[in-house]
Amino acid sequence: MLFYQEEVPVAGKYPIQPKRFFSAGADVPVRALALLAVKKVFPDNHRIHDLPDAQFQSGGELTAYDQLHRMTKINWLLRQSRVETAAH
Question: Which of 37, 59, 48 is nearest to 85 (CA)?
Fold first, then answer.
């Protein structure tokens, strides 16, 4: 699951930058979305460790929307990393 939080800038500060968070499930704590955090949440899923490294150059691309698969890129890669849902 992905979550977004926007901070209102103080006068004279930079524009609003959304903070992105994720959770691996309803019973798992919410964490700041970063590639290393995703890898730590799924320590035994070596495909989710390798697939994003091959696809992305920066962490900001994790939440880009994939028009073809109709979901964020990180969600599609997570689906592909699981044996039972790969290639669907």
Answer: 48
d(Cα 84, Cα 88) in Å, to the nearest integer? 9
Distance, in Å, from the CA atom of 70 to the CA atom of 78, rounded to the nearest integer, reads 14
User: Distance between CA 51 and CA 39 in Å, rounded?
Assistant: 11
Instruction: Find how far residue 70's CA is from the centre of its chain.
Output: 15
CA distance to 2, 19, 84, 87, per residue, from 34 (Å):
11, 11, 25, 24
Give the tens place of pLDDT for each residue, 29-81.
888 888 888 888 888 888 888 887 777 766 567 778 888 888 888 888 888 88
pLDDT of residue 41: 87
Q: Hey, where are the domains in the chain? A: 2-85
Break the chain down into helix, strand, coil percent, rounded to 5: 40, 20, 45
At 85 the pLDDT is: 57
